Amino acid sequence: MNQPLRVLIIEDSEDDALLLLRELRKGGYEPSYTRVQTADEMKTALEAQQWDIVLSDYVMPGFSGLKALGILREKGLDVPFVIVSGQIGEDIAVEAMKAGAHDYIVKGSLKRLVPAIARELGEAESRRERRRVEKALRRSEASLAEAQRIAHLANWEWDIIANVLWYSDEIHRIFGLTQSQIPATFEAGLDHVHPEHRPRVRQAITEALQSSTGYGLDYRFVRPDGTEGVVHAEGEVTFDDDGKPIRMVGTTQDVTERKRLEERLRALSRRLIQVQEEERRTIGRELHDQIGQSLTVVKLLIDNAIKAPAGRVKKILNEAETVTHEVITQLRDLSSELRPSMLDDLGLLPTLIWHIGRLGSRSGLEIDFKHSGLNRQFPPEIATAAYRIMQEALTNVIRHSGADQAIVRVWAEESKLVVWVEDHGRGFDPSARHFQNTIGLSSMEERALLLDGTLIIETSPGNGTLITAELPLVEPPGNREAGNEKDHADTSR
């Protein structure tokens, strides 16, 4: 069975076209063809379908093979183009080949036609395959570059013999370098390493060059603008047959943010330990100074009652009852400070109202409290964080601000719970080291961060303080109260 072949024939002689078709059939092809003889007809044919090959006469009335070749190139089509002409000399053939023709055949000798077509079809398929491979390679390189950008990861190669370095594009973003600033040699690369870490990087690479184990380490670097970061670098060495290192390849990944998070977690762990110890000391003092002393008084009164005459026993026991009631009150207060049970039993809003009322009556602080959207059930960790942040913020107002009034706003939106505590007291400089290390401020910030929330402290000396915490809410719709409260409640002291 003959091989199908789509042929566009550019020829003004129908007889010559038929000779070409007969030669193709003799050579094992089954051609489907269109014959054209003008530029417009050729353009129409090219738009109508795809062609496997174009066979063109060189000279025609009002048209030519070179003009036809130009049209093919203008349309960007890679179709084999073979000149078949009875009027062609060597100089004309050279001109046609320079213009882009793939071959030329003399009409009087068509024996080369079929082999030339077979060869050009094979080369055309090779070009198409090469383009497919190149396109896939470009797509793969683009995907790799995108993956490296997302992972902040660069790969590199060091030609040890020539001492030439090559980096992927992500190195620009990691180190903040322009193309002209990319280090071309090993020593130039070390210039971007922080001076304190330069010796250990040099040592790690030197040891890798002397062994086959490679290396991996974290080190600090300095960008041209003076900012610093941390990268994790790994490298492996290739040796020649004589055991001489000739090439090293590796990766460099920006881990600055990860290191910051790790340091933050370590700092959080230290703070949690500090808070725990402070809480233990506070509880210990309360148990010893208040409850312990009160129980000692109760014991003494009971001892006195045992020894006292019958007429005085009732009076002594009444005193013991009073002191016992004080102990119970102290225990309840201490328990509430640790965690109010009503937060679990009644929910966030009643607990906030209870604490604000209790704190205001004890401290004399006037608290303007308004709320919205709180008549719903919140996740326990959200409710606890909101309560503790408000509690700590108001405690700071009482202890440090010198203000006699505070404003508290707590409201729930669709996606977040917001706690706002403001005073018009003395304020402070939040950049001062002793304020940065304050356990109260740190604990509020960490409570918010642990829930993927935010805490913003706006203050300056003499201008009061505003603390805003936003805690994200992810809640099933059924948890919501049927009627969301619309009005702001007001609880003032």
Can you tell me the residue ranges where pLDDT is under 50 for at least 5 consecutive residues? 476-489
This entry's quaternary arrangement is single chain
Largest sheet: 6 strands, mixed
Radius of gyration: 43 Å
How confident overall, as mean pLDDT?
Answer: 84
Strand elements, count:
18
As a percent range, the share of helical residues equals: 40-55%
What share of the residues does DSSP label as strand, in percent? Answer: 15-25%
Q: How many helix segments?
A: 15
Spatial order of the strands forming the largest sheet? 16-17-15-14-13-18
Structural class: alpha/beta
**CA-to-CA gap between the ends?**
102 Å
Shape, please? Answer: elongated
SSE inventory with pairings:
Layout: E1 3-10, H1 14-26, E2 29-36, H2 39-48, E3 53-56, E4 59-60, E5 63-64, H3 65-74, E6 81-85, H4 90-99, E7 103-106, H5 113-151, E8 153-159, E9 164-167, H6 170-175, H7 186-190, H8 198-209, E10 215-222, E11 228-239, E12 245-254, H9 256-307, H10 310-338, H11 342-345, H12 348-363, E13 366-372, H13 380-401, E14 405-412, E15 416-423, H14 433-436, H15 439-450, E16 454-459, E17 465-472, E18 489-492
Parallel strand pairs: 1-2, 1-3, 3-6, 6-7, 13-14
Antiparallel strand pairs: 4-5, 8-9, 8-12, 10-11, 11-12, 13-18, 14-15, 15-17, 16-17
